[in-house]
Design goal:
4 domains, alpha/beta, single chain, 7% strand, 46% helix, three-stranded parallel sheet, disordered N terminus
C-alpha cells in the first residue's frame, strides 16, 4: 500500500519511539495529477480499507511465500504471463487486492464478477465480448471471480471449455478451501495460491501507511496514535488487514479532537473501536474441519491443554455445541475405550447435560469431558476389533451360525437341534464355561486384542487365560 507524500511531522504525531518503517515508505509517492478535487471527494467517501488497497505489486504487504521477488506469482505478474489461478485464504489477506494489482499491470482486458450476484448469463456475456475481434483483438480476457465458491456446479462448468482453450484466464478468490468447494476440473487447470493471515508486523506497516498517507489516508489530519493503540490494533485484528483498517477508521471518525484540535487515538479508543479479537472460524467451512480435527487429535494425544484450547476456539467461533459433544463421546469410545470405560460414561452424561442446559454453562461440561478423555489411558482396541470383524464379514462367505447358539422360540425348532448343547455360563463356577461361539470356519479368529494400559491390562490378563481354555469346535454335520 502506498504512503503518499512525505509526512508533515508538525501536523501528525506518533508514539515517542515509533517511526515509519522503510517498507512502509516504499510506495509513498503518488503519481502526479492522479486525483483532482472531485476525485479526492469521491475517495474520501470510500472506506479506508478500500482507499488503501495496493496499486502495485511493491505495495502488497506480506505473502512473501508467494510474492517474494523470484517466486512464481511474482514472475507471472511482472512478465504479464498469466495463467488461470485461484487465491484462497482468510478474509483480509489480500485476495481481491492482488486481483486489482493484476488488473493494473496486465495488458489484457480484465473483467470482474462477484459469484454472489453473477450467473451463467454474465459468464456468456464476458465470453461473447472476448470472442468479438473488434472489442477484443487479443481474443483473451482475464476474468476475476470473487467468492468463486458461491458458484454452483453448473455455473463453474460453464467456465471450463473457455478456461481450457485459453479464451478466459480465470482468477478466482475464495475464503473456502477450493479443493472442497471448486470444481475439480477447474482446479486441475489452475494454479492454487494460499494466502496466509498477515502478521502483526505486516498490519503495523499497513496502519502506519494509512496514518501517513496524505492522499488516501490521514496524513493531512492532526492525528496522534499511541504505540499501545497501534500494537493493540495490529495484534487483535488477527491477521485481517481490512479489520485493522476499519478499526482505525472508526476510531478516527468517532473521536472528537481535543482543545488543541488534535485527534488522539490511545489504547481505550483502540479497544473500543475493535471491541474484540476477530476469530477466523467458519462453522461450515475449512475452519470447522481443521478445528475439530485438532481437538480430536489433542484428546487422542493426551494433551488436555491443547484440547481445551481448540474447544475454546470452536466455541468462540460459534460451533454447534451438540456437534462438539458428539465428537467427544466418539473419542471417548474410539481412543480411550476399555482402557478407561468411565470416560464414555462421563462423555455420554456430558452430552445429555449439554442438550438440556445449553450455553454458556455447557462450556464447563464440554471442558470436563474433553479433559477426562485427554487424561485417560488410551486404547483403540475396540475400534480396531469392529473394523477387522467388518472386513471379515465383507470379504469372506458368511458361515452358518452354530446350532447351539441359535434361538428356538418354538418346540419344533428344538427338534431341529436349535439351541441344543448350549451351556449357560451362569451355571458354572466363575460364571464362565469354555465353549465355541464362532462358526467352525472362523475358529481361532481374533478380532479384539486388548492393550495393556489402564483397566484394559486386567482384561488382557483375564482374556489370555480364557482364550487358552477355548476348545476348537467340531464341524457342523447337519
Amino acid at each position: 500500500m502506498a504512503e503518499g507524500k512525505k509526512t508533515n511531522h508538525d501536523i501528525w504525531q506518533f508514539g515517542a519511539a515509533a517511526e515509519l518503517p522503510a517498507d512502509a515508505a516504499a510506495g509513498s509517492k503518488v503519481a502526479a495529477g492522479q486525483t483532482g478535487a472531485a476525485d479526492a471527494e469521491d475517495m474520501a467517501a470510500q472506506p479506508l480499507a478500500y482507499r488503501m488497497a495496493p496499486r502495485t505489486l511493491e505495495e502488497v504487504q506480506g505473502q512473501q511465500k508467494i510474492l517474494a521477488p523470484g517466486k512464481l506469482l511474482w514472475r507471472m505478474i511482472k512478465a504479464d504471463r498469466l495463467s488461470s489461478m485461484i487465491f484462497f485464504g482468510p478474509p483480509g489477506t489480500g485476495k481481491t487486492s492482488l486481483a486489482r494489482v493484476i488488473a493494473s499491470a496486465t495488458q489484457l482486458p480484465f473483467q470482474k464478477l462477484n459469484a454472489v450476484t453473477a450467473g451463467v448469463a454474465d459468464i456468456k456475456r464476458v465470453i461473447s465480448e472476448t470472442q468479438n475481434a473488434l472489442l477484443n483483438p487479443a481474443g483473451k480476457t482475464i476474468l476475476f471471480i470473487d467468492e468463486i465458491h458461491r458458484f454452483n456446479k453448473a455455473q463453474q462448468d460453464a467456465l471450463l471449455p473457455y478456461v481450457e482453450d485459453g479464451t478466459l484466464i480465470l482468477i478466482g478468490a475464495t475464503t473456502e478451501n477450493p479443493y472442497f468447494e471448486v470444481n475439480k476440473a477447474l482446479i486441475s487447470r489452475s494454479t492454487v495460491f494460499k494466502l496466509e493471515p498477515l502478521t502483526p508486523a505486516d498490519l503495523t506497516c499497513l496502519l502506519l501507511r494509512a496514518i501517513h498517507d496524505p492522499e488516501r489516508g490521514y496524513g493531512k489530519l492532526p492525528l496522534t496514535v499511541t504505540q499501545p493503540a497501534l500494537d493493540f490494533l495490529a495484534d487483535q485484528a488477527n491477521g485481517d488487514a481490512r479489520r485493522a483498517l476499519n478499526a482505525l477508521e472508526l476510531g478516527v471518525r468517532s473521536t472528537q479532537a481535543d482543545t488543541s484540535g488534535r485527534i488522539i487515538i490511545d489504547l481505550p479508543q483502540a479497544q473500543d473501536s475493535l471491541q474484540r479479537r476477530g476469530i477466523r472460524f467458519d462453522a461450515n467451512g475449512e475452519d470447522h474441519y481443521d478445528t475439530i480435527s485438532a481437538l480430536i487429535k489433542s484428546m487422542r494425544g493426551s494433551d488436555p491443554d491443547a484440547a481445551v484450547y481448540y474447544l475454546a476456539r470452536a466455541l468462540e467461533g460459534g460451533e454447534d455445541i451438540e456437534f462438539l459433544a458428539r465428537r467427544i463421546v466418539i473419542c471417548a469410545s474410539e481412543d480411550v475405550g476399555m482402557a478407561n470405560p468411565q470416560a464414555l460414561v462421563v462423555a455420554e452424561a456430558m452430552y445429555q447435560a449439554v442438550c438440556q442446559i445449553g450455553l454458556p454453562e455447557a462450556r464447563i461440561l464440554l471442558s470436563q469431558a474433553a479433559v477426562m478423555v485427554a487424561c485417560s489411558p488410551k486404547s483403540n482396541a475396540s475400534y480396531l476389533a469392529i473394523n477387522k470383524a467388518l472386513e471379515t464379514v465383507r470379504d469372506t462367505p458368511a458361515p452358518e451360525i452354530p446350532l447351539h447358539l441359535r434361538n428356538a422360540p418354538v418346540r419344533a425348532m428344538k427338534a431341529l437341534d436349535y439351541g441344543v448343547g448350549y451351556k449357560y455360563p451362569h451355571d458354572y463356577p466363575g460364571h464362565y464355561v469354555a465353549q465355541a461361539y464362532l462358526p467352525p470356519e472362523l475358529a481361532g479368529a481374533v478380532f479384539y486384542q486388548p492393550g495393556q494400559t489402564g483397566y484394559e491390562e486386567r482384561i488382557y490378563q483375564w482374556l489370555q487365560q480364557k482364550r487358552g481354555e477355548a476348545p476348537v469346535p467340531p464341524a457342523d454335520q447337519s
